[in-house]
Amino acid sequence: MNINATLFLQAVVFAILVWFTMKFVWPPISKALDERVQKIADGLAAADKAKAELSLANKRVEAELASSRNETASRLADAERRAQTIIEEAKQRATEEAARIVAAAKAEAEQQSVKAREVLREQVAALAVKGAEQILRKEVNSGVHADLLSRLKTEL
Fold first, then answer.
1. What are the CA-CA distances from residue 87 to residues 44, 81, 100 (Å)?
2. pTM, full prediction
3. Does residue 140 contact residue 132 with C-beta atoms inside 8 Å?
4. What is the DSSP string of 51-111?
5. Closest Cα partner for 148 from 132, 113, 135, 137?
6. Each residue of 104-150: pLDDT tens digit?
7. Exposed/middle/buried for 125, CB within 10 Å: 0-12, 13-18, 19+?
8. Phi, psi of 39, deg, nearest 5
């Protein structure tokens, strides 16, 4: 065999091998590589999307936490204001009740004073009658002199 024929034959076999590889072997490999590249790109995109969603979720959580803190603070402030209002109302009611009790006690004391005066007037009238009876040494009829006794009572 001639070296040129061998070289030529090897070149033809190599060309057929290249053509066969390009026609039947390379497309599935290229397709598999393209699919792999696409899967990696999709995975990276999904990771970026998940990272963005996580960041957004963290921001929403922080916003909700801040909102709940503010709401809690405002509710506490409202509760304190209500407690102060209730305390003030209770103090006011207690003051009014104390004033009412004092006024009732004063009125009752005044009534008792008036009753005591009436009793004292009756006793003084009775003593005056007894004194007058002893002075006159005769019996005084209280039924007959009721008008006189009532006038004496009002004068005292």
1. 63, 10, 19
2. 0.43
3. yes
4. HHHHHHHHHHHHHHHHHHHHHHHHHHHHHHHHHHHHHHHHHHHHHHHHHHHHHHHHHHHHH
5. 132
6. 999 999 999 989 988 887 887 777 777 676 556 455 566 656 666 67
7. buried
8. -65, -40
